[in-house]
């Protein structure tokens, strides 16, 4: 029997955009976004193909993919559903407040209805009304959650309210671990899941992104308490989205979904460390990455029991 893990979901939600474009409203603080030259229709078509191929690769590996279509033009970041909802063992679902106005329209009733129909959902805690109080917590972008050790790691940013993080951790029984993180230019990193990924037996993290030496040491030691292999990423590897990955459960065991670009940035030793624990599953998504997110952002893992 393949090994299973509370950290690695067997099912995911993905959104396939029909009019993909980088989001102008998020460019101010997402320094991983890049301008994409060329025809808008060609970009949208390329993104549609990339999401389709990524979903097919996940399904071929044994991951169940619930695909939803976004045929509108008002939600350019809809391909990143992990920011507006998350799921948790015991049948719990959270819905989150979003910083950018046009991202708030990404929340979908049909996704929540599917969860209630196909999985055992006990409750849905909706924090989205706190947008009126300028409090934001953008899901598993703002937090990287250790489901085994019950820890929620969060880098401070305008998209991560410490007040709301504390409230979430109280409701869902996690320990909050908060820190500052910056990119190679010294600018705050907009989402925690760009710089770290937690698997069952390993963690990817850009410790050099944490400028305070004492806090850097504390975060590293907290990760090591789970007896994980720690793969430290450089600033360049973070910029190539090597940290924006997710561990999933496939037919033949645990796998790590990450972008082809992210995988190519890893050195031989880093790959070998990861391959002791997971099968590496690279997904080719260069168009999507223009929006400043990568594979982890595209995948909302379902930590729920199927009906």
From TrEMBL:
GO molecular function: hydrolase activity
UniProt KW keywords: Hydrolase, Plasmid
Keyword Iron: no
Keyword Hydrolase: yes
Pfam families for the chain: DDAH_eukar (PF19420)
PANTHER family in the record: AMIDINOTRANSFERASE
Protein name per the record: Citrulline utilization hydrolase CtlX
Species name: Yoonia rhodophyticola
């Amino acid at each position: 029997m393949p090994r299973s893990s509370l950290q690695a979901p067997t099912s995911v939600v993905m959104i396939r955009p029909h009019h993909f474009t980088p989001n102008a409203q998020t460019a101010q603080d997402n320094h991983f976004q890049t301008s994409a030259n060329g025809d808008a229709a060609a970009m949208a078509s390329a993104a549609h193909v990339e999401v389709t191929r990524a979903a097919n690769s996940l399904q071929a590996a044994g991951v169940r993919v619930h695909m939803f279509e976004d045929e509108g033009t008002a939600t350019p970041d809809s391909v990143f559903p992990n920011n507006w909802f998350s799921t948790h063992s015991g049948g719990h679902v959270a819905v989150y407040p979003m910083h950018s106005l046009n991202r708030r329209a990404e929340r979908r009733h049909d996704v929540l209805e599917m969860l209630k129909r196909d999985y055992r959902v006990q409750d849905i805690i909706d924090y989205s009304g706190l947008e009126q109080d300028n409090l934001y917590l953008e899901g598993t972008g703002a937090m990287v959650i250790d489901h085994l050790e019950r820890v929620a790691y969060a880098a401070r940013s305008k998209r991560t309210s410490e007040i709301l993080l504390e409230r979430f951790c109280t409701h869902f029984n996690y320990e909050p671990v908060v820190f500052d993180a910056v990119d190679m230019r010294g600018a705050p990193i907009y989402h925690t899941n760009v710089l770290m990924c937690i698997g069952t037996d390993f963690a990817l993290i850009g410790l050099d992104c944490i400028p305070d030496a004492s806090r850097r040491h504390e975060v590293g030691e907290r990760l090591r308490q789970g007896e994980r292999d720690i793969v430290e990423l450089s600033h360049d590897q973070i910029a190539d989205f090597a940290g924006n990955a997710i561990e999933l459960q496939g037919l033949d065991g645990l796998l790590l979904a990450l972008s082809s670009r992210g995988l190519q940035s890893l050195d031989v030793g880093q790959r070998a460390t990861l391959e002791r624990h997971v099968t590496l599953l690279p997904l080719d998504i260069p168009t999507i990455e223009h929006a400043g997110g990568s594979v982890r952002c595209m995948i909302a893992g379902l930590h729920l029991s199927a009906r």
